[in-house]
Amino acid sequence: MLRAMYDLQLQHMIRPGRAVVGEFTEGEMYLAAANMANKVVISKLPAFSAYASRIVPTKESLQILNINQTITALAVGRFTSDAATDLLFIGTPTELVVYDVPQNREVFRKSTTGGASSIAVGKTGRIKKTLAIVGGESALQGFDEDGNEPLWTITGDNVAVLVLFDVNKDGQVEVIAGCDDHQIRVFRETEQIFSMSETDKIVSLAVLKDQNFVYGLANGTVGVYEQYERRWRVKSKSKPLAVLGFDVTGDGEPEILCGWASGKFEIRDRFSGNLLFKYQMDDPIAQILEVDDPRNHHEKYILVATAEGDVKAFAVEDSTSKEYTVTFLQDGQSHDMLTVDGEGNSKVVPVKPDAEDGESVASVANIPQPLSREDSVYDWSTVPDNVEVYIDVEPNLGNPNYFLNRNLPSGKASALPADMDVYVRKDDGSMDGRIGLPNLFDKPSLKFTIRTSDAAYKIPGVVIFTEGVFSGESYYHHPPERLVTNVVQFPVTIPKNLPVDMFITIMAGQTNRKFYYCHGELIRMKRFAMYYHLSTPGTTTAAPTSPAPPPEGFVAFKVQERINRFFLWASENFFLRGDIKASGDQSGGSLAFVSLRDGEQLVIRMTSAGEITVMTDSIDTAGDVVESLADGLTLKHVESHAHFPKAYDGLLNVFSQLDEFQTNRQRQIADIADRGAGIRAMLMKAEECKTLETWPEVKKYYMELHNQNKSILGDFRVQIEAHQKFTASLKSVSQLIDKAARLRVGTPKSDLFSKCRLAVQSRDVQLLVRLMEFGAS
Amino acid sequence: MDPLYVALKLFELRKYDQVDKITTALLERNPQDEALWTLKMRALTQQVYVDEYEMEYEDVVDQLMDESAMAARPRPGTSLRQPVKTGVGVRPGATARPMSRRTGRPVSGMLRPSSRATTANMRNAMTTGRGLQTSQPLTAKIGRMLRQGTASMLTTPNGPFIVLSRLNLAKYTEKKYLAKPLFEYIFYHDHETALALQMANAAHNLDNRDWWWLSRRGLCHYRLALQREAERDMKEAASQQAHPDNHLYLSKIYARIDLPAQAIESYKAGGVNFPAEPAMLVGAARIFEELDDLANSTLFYRDALKIDAMNFEALACVGMECYYDDQPELALRYYRRLLQMGVHSAEIFINVGMCCFVSQQMDLMWSAFENAFLLCNKEQLADLFYNLGYICACSGELQYAQRCFQLSLTSNNSNPEALAGLAQIAYSEGDRQKAVSLLSVSVTASGKEDASMETLYNMAVCCEELGDHGSAFHYAQMAHTLASGLGAVDKDVKDLLLRLQAAIHSV
């Protein structure tokens, strides 16, 4: 159980996630927190005492650090284990500052590739030195004590959170990076070894035990991974701003402490995700921290910091008790504590584990299983055995000219062979006196067809629950009542080329009945489900594959595999039409697809010599295909020739923009500084006139001040805009490098990163394009 | 002789006026001659050239509205802005080096442009600190570098030599032989820092391996109060070329952003590269002195003296340290050395006189003070009479002492020390009322916040004896906060406070 130790009222707002605890004097612990005014507030933590008390630090006892830039991350740590005190690491949108608090000394200050939105201090991989690992806009950098940079790699997007630990039990510490593109990436030194796809931005990560870690997403999901497998997750409407693994019960197994933006403070079991305890605080919880205070005999305790600057400390007490009780100091101004049990402590009654919070909407284990039956509002009964439920999914191109019409105003050309079957809803407009419905299948999409074998079992509705496809994670399809039959068809669009699991619940029965039969099923969607297979050339239909020009871009590489395995891979990942085995003899084969998302073409060809060519204009799709191929054919080393003129063309433009931006920025900085001096002088004069009470002068100066201020603000806005453009183009460059790297596997991939970086630093566009096209070798 | 040759020779002889005249005449004949143009620029620049690392641009506005320092409330002993609390070199008793009232750091042996006096707030800065001798209003101290064009008007009565706004900077930046003199002209002569920065940026983009441009860009940034940018440039420049200037500038930037530890480190790093350069040692000694680490400070000054036995600053500072360290004879030697080197100023003679007095060499003392009389101006005269008054008071000549203090007041009618001295004499004569009024004048003369602890204590004692316990308590409290603020624990003040508290409670 937890017992309140003290309430530290910092009287400064705390930015969520930006509070840390460090030993800034030998033997004494300090709390450092970033406030809203771009300052770091450092306060000494009170010594352990037997009585809970409310502490308001005096203004003089707080140390304030001016950063003058938005503080994006804070961390503490030391580079050498024999250092007496901790260093404070401060991340801003442009640089990393390492500051020695007791000495008032900057250890170093380094500008980073894309800011520093997350910092972790520790060792990783086989690098001997302790590094400050900084995650920024699309880059991961590691700095050693002297400010050198032995680690640098590209991530797909901004790294919001970082933790260091051995996730895969290989004895080396990996870097786990939670990114804004919904991925949790695992890096071993510079190499990305795994990536877990989530459904929203990662906002928090924390290490538990035995290769387990907990994560929190911006959409309110909290879950636990064991190695690369997700154990469980729960979803809530609020945002989990802070998570921490901490052993509350003293059984050696850490529980999960979770602080939400709504002010909710929870303790959950790490194996099942069951809620053990919850408490509603007045303010959003900004951070939960573990303190190892040497004054307290290294007995660990936790700090819960709210965004309003209220820091509550709790110690584990009576660790043998299995009860989940937490003693609180009463909130508000009063210094009294609630006397409930006569001991001066206010007891909060624990929540029963089964009384799940109303906000949590779903708790899903990763074992495939139908949704639990007890929760359903319907009278669940399985569909009788003699009635079968069929679920069919097929890519549906709909109007074949859907995409072409946009490109070619004539709309005459068709991307498809003449024998394409085009599904048109039969009921449209044919119903007497009724208004026709819009054609659901006009836009290309995946067509779901669900059918019961008995016409009496009509389907009034279908619920699909899946991650990352629908906004809000689930989808309910119900045809108008007059159209309810035993067949239901509806379109679904999957945004990414990822294999997704879909939990489909089908209702079946008579329309006028109060209760329906239900049928649940899990289907695993193919990775490239959103590609429509065009009939292969050389088969009976001799129609040309497409009158549209073939894609310009391609990636080509060689593999040591038989062609059969290639087709096996294709059939596992694509919806193929007809028997491709027949067409695929040993001399090679070719598959042509068109994307249902944007009409982009994709042709994959393999010759008998094992040369695979993936032709598409989208470098992303090519990357997905190569990744999937490497996975399916277990390729360890792929060096490829990647030709994507459209993607590379933009680079030249970006680089000329960069130069221009740099000169502009230098000028603007000087300009603003020059004016700032004038403004400060003016303010001084105005104040002096106020002291002398010469009011007309005061008015004059303040008017002038106002005008100056306005114009400097205008300049500043221009600068900000330019800066945003600059970072966006820098990001686009590194994302392109990332995409180019995805067309390679193994060492060619990591070589490409380092060589591309040198090219970027020397601003050599030609070299960069050459590297991306032909690889680093 | 070829007039250009003559001009070049004169330039070598530092006869810049004449160079200017010759080149102006020649340029009228051939305005396109770049050699002449460069020479004239150099001559004009040299006339107004100052060592940038001895300059201080920080004015009252910067002090009040500057947030470039990282730590707003750093720990004592790690900052140049916080008053020193428990310094390493604090010695108890009367021989402790007095703290400067304004800044809360020890007084130094030399007057320097960089005194990082931080006044608590703007109102304070505006209402106090205006010396009688300077009727200059506070706002005149603002924006020293904003006076553009005045220097050029001074040197060229027929309008500016180069109209910078019409200059094609890009063209001249590419001409390497012209770019550097032109930059210096813009930077030192015309004070067009923004323009100079533009040029330095352009030149740096042309050739980023040239440390000179990097370091100049740093200077421009420093002048524009962009210390972080300046730091980056100087660091880069220092790593490219270990030039003493680069190290000195870097340390200066660190001191400005209140990172004294790093400033000293940078001085030391410079000292490794240039072991025979006293500027590094003197720089480090200055920082130590401001941190109240007087032992280290003196050590560094002495090291500087080993290299350069004619360094005024080091001599004066070591001499002062000796004086307050109860070694007046040694101090005398350092001051004599200064005199030998030709520094004949009233202050030195006053110091010599005081040293003689403390070391009981009365015969020498009088001649020193006589010399000081011959050299001093009005303000120094006030100090001189105050010191004489002190000597008289110490020798029991209260009559003379009184006269001396009064004479001091005639030259500076708000000399708080002289007023306090008069008050002391009045007190010893038993005139409490007079003592109180003199002391209160003394307190207002120095400004309430800046009054010395002793004055406040005396005031409290007088008030107490007059029975005005309320005022006495007020002043005693002020004295107490001041004493504890400087890290000293004064038993007398505490006793007085307790006594007064008891008295007030008993009423």
Automatic annotation (TrEMBL), chain A:
Residues 444-528 form the BBS2 GAE domain. The keyword Oxidoreductase does not apply. Residues 546-631 form the BBS2 platform domain. One of its GO terms (biological process) is non-motile cilium assembly. Residues 162-268 form the Ciliary BBSome complex subunit 2 middle region domain. Residues 645-742 form the BBS2 hairpin domain. Residues 21-122 form the Ciliary BBSome complex subunit 2 N-terminal domain. PANTHER family: BARDET-BIEDL SYNDROME 2 PROTEIN. Pfam families: BBS2_GAE, BBS2_hp, BBS2_Mid, BBS2_N, BBS2_pf. Coiled coil: none annotated. Signal peptide: none annotated. GO terms for cellular component: BBSome; ciliary basal body; membrane; motile cilium. It is found in: Cell projection, Cilium; Cytoplasm, Cytoskeleton. This is Bardet-Biedl syndrome 2 protein-like protein.
From TrEMBL, chain B:
Transmembrane segments: none annotated. It comes from the Eukaryota. InterPro entries: BBS8, TPR-like_helical_dom_sf, TPR_rpt. One of its GO terms (biological process) is non-motile cilium assembly. GO terms for cellular component: BBSome; ciliary basal body; non-motile cilium. Residues 72-113 are annotated as: Disordered. This is Tetratricopeptide repeat protein 8. It comes from Hypsibius exemplaris.
